[in-house]
Amino acid sequence: MSKRSEIxxxxxxTLGKRGLIYTEVLGWVDLGxxxxxxxxxxxxxxxxxEGGGKPYYDVKxxxxxxxxxxxxxxxxxxxxxxxxxxxxxxxxxxxxxxMMKVAYxxxxxxxxxxxxxxxxxxxxxEDLVSDLLGFYRVVDxxxxxxxxxxxxxxxxxxxxxxxxxxxxxxNESFRPLLFxxxxxxxxxxxxxxxxxxxxxxxKPYASVPSERVDIVIDDGTGWHLKFSGG
Length: 230
Known about the structure:
This is DUF2612 domain-containing protein. It comes from Pectobacterium brasiliense. With 230 residues, the protein is an alpha+beta fold. The chain has one domain (4-225). Helix content is 29%, strand content 21%. The strands form three sheets. It has a three-stranded antiparallel β-sheet. It has a two-stranded antiparallel sheet with strand order 1-2. A hairpin with a 4-residue loop joins strand 3 and strand 4. Helix 1 crosses helix 2. The longest helix has 23 residues, at 88-110. It starts with 19 loop residues before the first strand and ends in a 5-residue tail after the last strand.
């Protein structure tokens, strides 16, 4: 759940790993989601499998969250079986497909019982597009923030205070949800924008299940409960 206090200066975003910024191209961006740590954990699994001695190997993608001092947590995950010999570009395509499927399901999980009592994070307007940004930042090795036209903290706060918390605006797509400058139009309303070209370059892998790519676990859910300890 993004908070007003988490809003940081957009032009300095490349230096931070946490916080919320507003950009003219993607709207609100959650810097945590945009780090792409999930993709950094996934891609080495392809490298290990391709370098191994077996004809098939499994890769697992997951997203998780923890609440109540990390004592309660949940995750969504999927496991796919890959036939050795997929190209690097195919690996990226498969990784994108896995991320998009799990990210959507994870947002749905956050929006359901019991988490909807504690957070409005489920399909919050910035989450999915921030996940997608994180994917491309890792795959391409480029920060990309300058291309997204981040605004100052004051400009971002102005939008938050005029429109309300981003968690109020649900976005079940990977499209950017934009909030026009209210000083330019007092009747301004949020609207869906268009992804920049670099965020449409890779297409999610569609030939699944097949001989080369199969699904071992389609829609997995994990739970974490810690009753004692620090």
